[in-house]
Amino acid sequence: MDSLTHVLYHFRMSSPAAGPSTLGRLTGTIPGVIDPSQRDRLLTFTHSSLSFASFNPHTATSSNLMPDARKLSLNQDLSNPRRIVIERLPTGASLWRFVPKARRDQNVFNEGEWPRVINICGTLYGCSEDQWDIYKLDPMYECQVRLPPALTTITPALQKPPESPHSAGKRTLTRAGIPTLNPRKKINTRASFDSDDDDDEIEEVEDMIIDQTIPSRAKSVGLLGTRLKKMREGILQSRQQRRESTSRRAEKLSKREEAIYYDFRAVPPSERSQSVPSENATKRKATILTDPLRSPEGELGDDLFRNTFMYEQNAQGKRTRKTSPGAARRELDAKRARRDRRREDRRRSKVSSRRQQWHEQFMQEVYAEVPELKPAPSDIPAWDNHNQDLNHNADGDVSDNEDSEGGPSTDSSFDEDAARAAAIAESRRKLAELEADRPLWEASAKQRALREKAEQETFRLKAEQRRWDEAKRTGAARRAEDHHKAREAKEREEAARREQEEVVRQEREDAGRRKQERERRNQRWTYGPWSPGRALEKYKVMSDDFDSTKFSAHDPLSFDVVPWPVLAAPSKLSVEDVDWTAVETFFHTIRRSMLSQDFKILVEKSHKRFHPDRWRSRGLLKTVVDEAERGCLEVAATTVAQALTPIWRDLTGR
Description:
Blueprint: H1 3-14, E1 24-26, H2 38-42, E2 49-55, E3 82-88, E4 94-98, E5 103-104, E6 116-120, E7 123-127, H3 129-137, E8 141-145, E9 153-156, H4 196-207, H5 217-259, H6 269-274, H7 296-304, H8 327-369, H9 379-405, H10 416-436, H11 438-526, H12 532-548, H13 580-590, H14 596-609, H15 612-618, H16 627-652
Parallel strand pairs: 1-7, 5-8, 6-9
Antiparallel strand pairs: 2-3, 3-4, 6-7, 8-9
Helix pairs in contact: 13-16, 14-16
Region (Disordered): 232-357, 375-421, 466-526
């Protein structure tokens, strides 16, 4: 019958009203037996597992190292060791922390013995200590240890009420007749102290450092209290200063409000009805702090009887406006319009000049293609003779008329219509010749266009060919470079592989040579009578070889290579022989045959040789492939280190 069954049996016997079906068994380290959502709150990963243990700072410590009773402090916790929870992750790593303490009634000094019957949300269960710790870890439940004969209870924890939105915001000070002051930020105050459980956890973690001097907790708490006291005094002082400045400001504002008045009865109704505001008058802002309203006795009378022609500027009045408010704006707009017009004119002239230049160039090209027209020899003389005859006749007629009549003649021989018709006919003839030559210069223009197009196509093809050749050369160079790099990389890999093979071969040869040397050396200790002197000699020789050897996968660590400080013969030595008593017997025996200084040096070297950190830094256990052998070597080395620690402390006085 296990302990929980025994507890349930006695509870049923002592409580006849509780039937066999009213009590349940709650054991194991699996959370969520009753509440399935408990696994999501406690486990970091779904497949993690929990285990529990007791934390004791004197674990793995010799009785000689236990603290003296005369050095015990009243603040030291002499109760049972604290419980810790260990979570093993799926990756193999482990996490741990302290299990929080449960709430206790007054005059309840501990959580009692387990397993026992408790009340979980109104139902009785026979609960083990592991399940009790699981509910203490769950923030959704509250664990309470009642004063006997009341049962220990587990109830749902009360949820904290949500914080008021005004608690973290800004505050404004309002007062009747006083304008709203500028909001000021609230000074951030530090949170309250953590619970006693957190302080206990910190204290327990600090106690884990056994080899160092533990500082006084009262001193650290005193320093923390002094620092918090200074911070609280600074906050109160700044708050008092703000309150004083606010009260002074409110008093000042109230006094100014009492002095602000305006008697509208001081001005007669006729004057108020006839007063018209000036055209250029602007609104003036009146604030309570800097610009109170004007009284009727002083400034109002001055404004009514002021001479605007002999106005003198004073320090408090406004300057007289000399120009219209919109004059500057209108002047700027006019300047901008003039600049835009000049810019537009320049643009138009530039466009027209370009257009005229293009037209002239086009006409020059057109006329360059047309063959020059040469008139017949009979045409020009006839036209010239005709003109000369006309001119001559006209002159003669004019002279005759002038001589005969003494004035110009109305019957002129020069026929203007005939001249105009002749000019039109000549123009038509030239246009007809140009029209007849149109196919020639159009064909010439087409040939020139085709020739230019062919030249452009040739130039484009040549440029395309050059780009193609350049890309081809670049691609070939890139492929050659890639091939060269690949070949170099392959050569480097091959050289590294050969070098690695050479290193492995050399390590295997060295390991084989060292193994043969160790076998030959171990044969010395196999034959002959065995004595403490030979045990000491064997320990020294094997220690030098052990310290100088670099163990690896090709030369792994083994049990017969480690210089175990025991008096047993090598042929009969096994892992079970390496224990605390054997190590102490070895060093107590060889101490009689050695000088004190030599013995002290030997103990110090041995303590460093078997220290777990030294083995971890050398990676000795990583070279062992067999997991069982690795575990045995680790346990034996830890045992030797723990046995050497008291001897080393006695010699060094640490």
